[in-house]
Structure formats: structure tokens, C-alpha cells
Amino acid sequence: MVIIIKKSLVTLSVIAGFLGLGSLAASADTYTVQSGDTVANIAASHNDTVNGIASRNNLSNVNLIFVGQQLEVGQNTTSNNTQAAATTTATTAQTQSTPVASTTTNNTSASYNTNTNTAAQSTNTASSNTANTSSSSSNYGTGSHAAVLSQMESRTGVSASTWNYIINRESNWQSSVRNSTSGAYGLFQNMHISGGSVQDQIDAAVSLYNQQGMAAWSM
Asked: How many whole angstroms separate alpha carbon 140 and alpha carbon 187?
């Protein structure tokens, strides 16, 4: 706000200076009427107007002037130029005083912050997805979830999603868990084995399926 007031004061000073110059230059020229002159010709040659010359010289009839008569001419030109210069200066000063830069800066900053936040969110989402993928692909003995399910599906014809449901229900994918009551062991909680690797458990589950089908898991 202080900066704008200073610019306004400077502008007023400049305008006042122009007006002052205009006042100094406003003195009309004196023209002596020659033979054949008309007010219109005199006005044109001195960048003046007929009405201006008539008003300035108290002419009641612009068609009636005399040879040797002295007329004040050219005053309108100086006044108009001064006014135009003052108007231009005032407009320029007002434009320079308008605080536009801060708005532009704020918008740019807001846009930058929004883009930065969006990029950060995207990065966090990608990191989270990667972590989840890594977790779901954790190894159990010699095979992963996908490897176990794929092998069970291909060897039994039962969908991988069904085997995933059974394993989650029976052991929650804990390959070494044992039921202390029934003695069932491993991923499939098979009572026909008491230990072994993941592959051993898969082989035993396939064998059990071939003997009893899905009834072995109450399906």
C-alpha cells in the first residue's frame, strides 16, 4: 500500500509538471492579418480552430477581419497537447500501480503446491501397492502363494481361488502350523502328514484329493 501511495505522489508531481509546462507554453502567437486572409485559413495554418480564434479575439463575425488586424492564434494546440500528455502519464502511472504481480505469484505458488502434493500422493500410492504386492508374494518354503495355487489347480482341476480359500481357512498360509488336537499339519491341515516342505504338503494334498475329493476339506 505504501508503494502505491508513493507512485501516486510521483504521478501527481509529473502531471503537475506537465500542466505547468502547458501553462508556460499557452501564450498565443500574434498574427497580423494579410490581404486575402480568412479566419479559416489562419486557423488551418496555425493548427488552431475558427471558434478558438473568434473567442480569443472577441470576433462577433468571423467573416469580417481587416488587413493589419492582429489576432491571437495557436493557443489551442499547446493546451490540447498538454492535456493529452497529462492523461497519458496518469494512465501509465495507474497501470504501474496496480498490484497484479502478487496475484500471479500466489496462483503460480498454489499451482506448484497442488502439483507437488499430487505427485507425493501418487508416489505414496505406488509405494503402498509395491509393499502389498511384495507381501502377497512372500515365500513359504520352496514356493509362493501363486506357485502353490497354480500347481494345485493344474494337478486337481479345482480353481486356484478355491484352493486359496481352503488354505486361508485351514492354516492362514502358515506352512508349519500343527493342530494340537487332530494332529493335522501344514497349509492344507492334512492329517496324513506330520511334516515336510511346502512341496511335500502339495503332493500330499493332491494325493488326498485324488482319494476323497473336496470332501476331505468338507467342500
From this structure: 10
Distance of alpha carbon 36 from its chain centroid, rounded?
72
State residue 183 phi and psi, 5-degree precision. Answer: 85, 5
Q: Would you say 89 and 18 are in contact if contact means Cβ atoms under 8 Å apart?
A: yes
124-160 tens-digit pLDDT? 555 554 444 444 334 444 458 999 999 999 999 999 9
- φ/ψ of residue 24, rounded to 5: -70, -35
pLDDT at 192 over 60: yes
pLDDT greater at residue 144 or residue 189: 189
Sort strands 70-73 and 29-32 into parallel, antiparallel or unpaired: antiparallel
Picking from 34, 32, 41, 31, the residue whose alpha carbon sits closest to that of residue 62 is 41
The mean predicted confidence, pLDDT, of the chain is 73
